[in-house]
User: What shape does this take?
Amino acid sequence: MKKIIALTLIAVLLAGCGATTSVKTGLGHDISIAKSKDATAEAEGLAQVDTVMAAVTFDKAGKILGVTIDNAQVKVNFDQNGKVTSDLTEKPETKVELGDKYGMKKASGIGREWYEQIAELEKWMTGKTVDQINAMKTVQKDESHPAVPDEADLKSKVTVSVESYLAAVTEAYKNAK
Assistant: This one.
């Protein structure tokens, strides 16, 4: 989240200082509750909200000058009676804030944590237009990963499904001012 704020401030300063390049910054998001689950006799229920956020700076031609992506994956457990069993005083951290604590490295198949994979995706997006990033070739790895990059320079660096990240960047472009 701090990176998103810093990127936004830099863009505002550049625009406010009369920089010769016309720079626009936009914020976008994509929200899903698709991973939520009902409570059963065997297991607690889960209300999960995944909020992908993107702060993106574009040049006058619409090329991405800088992009910062993060994901707040907020989980709330509840019992069969609907009583919340999660600690309500806990302050959820985003995936970037969690860093290595997120725990993707073991399951990634490429030995990279979530924030490392997103950094590679952000690098790949830089210098491209929204149309170019949305034209990214993807493959469905499984039901939970319907859009994993199938670009030669990303295959060995990004194993997460990218549809929400592309949607957030696209919305950021639409919101850019």
In short: The two ends are 20 Å apart (CA to CA).
